[in-house]
Design goal:
about 325 residues, alpha/beta, Rossmann fold, 2 domains, 6-stranded parallel beta sheet, 3-stranded parallel beta sheet
């Protein structure tokens, strides 16, 4: 089985991917890494952890060599809203970190997963049924780094033979880890506020439609793509994938099926609204379905039910702790 390194392993995606891969990968090693130390005992005790800055070329190389890593999931990056507040830092971390990881993958012949995003598109991209191959002119630093990252991964595959693969994620929804500063984070926060206070103030307009995905589908997509037969992959970096699309108004209506008294109001953040307005309403993911069999398992109804149940357990546990 493979020896796997995950960067940014304590983030929203990485924390769940790490545990999923450790359950799946019984004969290899799954090394989690981040620039902060894990506090969750289950995460900490389930496998090796390395304190690792993705900009440190020497340390990255040593970890890859020491554990004989042959597959890397590179998740260390700044997200969209944070990236707009700190664009210079976002470029340094997102592009510098990817370059470091690509070099390690090249030198040690490791496969690499790089997550792109709907943020790679821009206001001139078709917003409805956004094609796999289309114009990409993002207006955010986060989006710029995603487009550049896709191109750089393609270059390393074509020039050096590195097995690079990736997807363009929609907004990701999960209750297990706090969001990390993305434009679509409202779709997570709304569940916590609904269960705790029966009210939520949204920073996006009521009719803002965005592609979304429940985290278990995202984790499954990553693993499925990295295990797919390379001969069937035409696009590699990066595949559109999606599961559902909705507006804050539509999500609030779905939540009211479980919490009838839930109320939503709006205090629009111009930065995040501007980013959201430049992103697709929904993507065409037919290439992923065709080339490696992608298909989501959760729709809006299924995701809402799972989130209500999961967040309710967390809220109840908080109340017990006092």
């Amino acid at each position: 089985m493979k020896n796997i390194l995950i960067t940014g392993a304590l983030g929203q995606i990485g924390s769940e991917l790490t545990m999923a891969l450790r359950k799946r990968n019984q004969t290899g090693v799954v090394v989690a890494s981040d620039i902060r130390m894990p506090t969750d005992p289950q995460f900490r005790d389930s496998g090796p952890f390395e304190f690792l800055d993705v900009l440190d070329e020497y340390r990255v190389g040593r970890v890859v060599e020491e554990y004989r890593i042959d597959t890397i999931y590179h998740l260390g990056a700044l997200l969209s809203a944070v990236g707009e507040k700190k664009p210079q830092v976002a470029w340094k971390i997102n592009m510098g970190g990817l370059y470091t990881i690509l070099e390690a993958a090249r030198q040690y012949k490791a496969a690499l997963f790089f997550p792109s995003s709907i943020g790679a598109f821009g206001p001139t991209t078709p917003l409805d049924n956004t094609p796999q191959d289309t114009i990409m002119r993002p207006h955010s630093m986060y989006g710029v780094t995603k487009v550049a990252g896709e191109l750089l991964c393609n270059y390393y595959h074509d020039r050096f033979g590195v097995d690079t693969r990736g997807v363009r994620f929609p907004g990701l929804i999960s209750y297990q880890t706090e969001p990390g500063g993305g434009t679509t984070d409202y779709a997570v926060a709304i569940f916590f506020e609904a269960l705790k206070h029966k009210r939520f103030t949204c920073y996006l307009k009521p009719d803002t439609s965005l592609d979304m995905m429940y985290m278990p589908d995202a984790i499954r997509a990553m693993i499925q793509l990295m295990e797919a037969d390379a001969s069937g992959l035409k696009h590699r970096n990066a595949f559109n994938i999606t599961a559902m699309h909705f507006t804050p108004t539509q999500l609030a209506a779905e939540i009211r099926k479980y919490i009838p008294e839930f109320a939503i109001d709006y205090d629009v953040d111009p930065i995040r609204q501007g980013i959201a307005d430049s992103w697709p309403n929904y993507m065409d993911d037919s290439a992923a379905r065709r080339e490696w069999g992608w298909a989501p398992e959760y729709d809006l109804s299924g995701m809402t039910k799972a989130m209500i149940e999961g967040v309710a357990r967390l809220v109840a546990a908080e109340m017990v702790k006092g």
